[in-house]
Amino acid sequence: MNQEDLFKKLIAHSKEYGFIFPSSEIYDGLGAVYDYGQNGVELKNNIKKYWWESMVLLNENVVGIDSAIFMHPTIWKASGHVDAFNDPLIDNKDSKKRYRADALIEEELAKIEGKIEKEVEKARGRFGASFDEKIFRETNPRVLENQQKWDALHNRFAAALNNSDLGELKQIIEDNEIVCPISGTRNWTEVRQFNLMFSTEMGSTADSSLKIYLRPETAQGIFVNYLNVQKSGRMKIPFGIAQIGKAFRNEIVARQFIFRMREFEQMEMQFFVRPGTELDWFEKWKETRIKWHKALGFGDSNYRFHVHEKLAHYANAAVDIEFKFPFGFKEVEGIHSRTDFDLSQHQKYSGKKIQYFDPELNESYVPYVVETSIGVDRMFLQVLSASYCEEEIDGGDGGKDTRVVLRLPAPLAPVKLAVMPLIKKDGLPEKARGIIDELKFEFNCQYDEKDSIGKRYRRQDAIGTPFCVTVDHQTMEDDTVTIRYRDTMDQERVAIDQVKSIIAGQVNLKRLFEKLM
Length: 517
Ligand code: ATP
Prior knowledge:
Layout (H helix, E strand, L loop, with lengths): L2 H14 L3 E3 L11 E3 L1 H19 L5 E3 L9 H5 L2 H4 L1 E6 L6 E3 H27 L5 H7 L1 H22 L3 H10 L16 E4 L3 E4 L7 E4 L5 H5 L2 H7 L6 E10 L14 E11 L4 H17 L8 E5 L9 E9 L2 E12 L1 H10 L5 E3 L4 E3 L2 E8 H12 E7 L5 E7 L10 E5 L6 H12 L5 E3 L5 H11 L3 E5 L1 H6 L1 E6 L5 E5 H12 L2 H7 L1
Parallel strand pairs: 3-9, 19-20, 19-21
Antiparallel strand pairs: 1-2, 4-5, 4-6, 7-8, 9-10, 10-16, 11-12, 12-13, 13-16, 14-15, 17-18, 21-22, 22-23
Adenosine-5'-triphosphate (ATP) binds next to strand 10, strand 13, strand 16 and helix 13.
């Protein structure tokens, strides 16, 4: 299946099985805003739990907070967001479509990269086992030519971003003959800056109302609570503060489903360290975070680090963790060394001293910060796209059938166990409900008695339920059931009182945490 088809199928599947719905759908939707359905919310909560516990349970020096979305407007002045939280915007005059100028150039870079990868894959097929990828990349003329093109474009792009040179961004688009994907023309406007923050007003009268912003990141809520947490928790540096919460950005181009939304959720952790040690901690968190992703078992080669072309105004090192989505490698998480920028700015704008007395050094300083910042929704999309599978299986009547299965890691699955009476009589439904009553305190169980057993299995496969238990007439005689495993479709007969331990071992987050230690 090609990747574009896969992505379309994922979107349709998400809706059909209650994972994600377009927001306000009966009113034709609202751009880049989505709602999570009955299965989506469970999966999302499990992702958040995996992140939260890996931060605050596994690290004794990381604690959590939950700060308000509304904050004092001066915070956004101090953080630089009022003046600098901009994206470069460009319009095509023919299609009237709006784009991010940087995104158009990044797509051009990805195209060149795609050409190189195609050459490499072709050669791999030709040479077989004797293929030496490194030598091929260093010597093949077509690869070298494209690599030079990529380097030149990349260097020019990075310089333009770093100098905030909007004219040069336009020139790059023109020189590379980048066309609008809709109109196919090069009839572009100038590039201009666009601030991504949403604003609203707080207060009841026009005179007293205050212009406030919907937070574009959760991080500032952590910075302005640094002193509160450090003092009330008697925290010693190094320590971290974690938070999960909504963030809002008026994205110029909102495409790719839940990859880029205008209302989304972030999981951020700010780690406060002694000045001068920040780059060591940056490396440490980089390793910790990539391990967290890889522990899910989606394939190590589907991840890569991407070093930023342009460092944000607050950072002295920054890297993204990228995942291979159906539309290519894209950022899911950023790890940034934010220096003492934010705390110093809040110290300056609030007039309050924000410092740490380090008893070992016997001196006070503004701590440095290393941040890990991941979008819940992008993580959700990662999990969904890595888990979606279409498989050809025996149709039972000698023919072939297709099953759609979400191979979700069991600890993340929305429903852990489906219990099904083979038929709707002879006491089987009551027996099945009895099993659920026993197990519902342990994990999310679902009762299903409608349609044939085969159809019921398919429905559970489609939402990623790792275990199905079937109650039949034999169950009434000897208290055994059939347990069916989602991935292998194997079935075995087990005693009812074994079911809990079979499942518990697989669905516990501890299984993932063990891989992080
Ligand atoms: P991008 O370059 O894709 O716009 P960013 O570099 O601006 O992202 P950060 O400010 O570093 O993103 O935000 C941290 C994380 O928050 C991102 O890695 C991403 O997972 C998530 N995120 C940011 N913007 C969005 C959005 N519009 N929709 C969904 N998730 C987002």
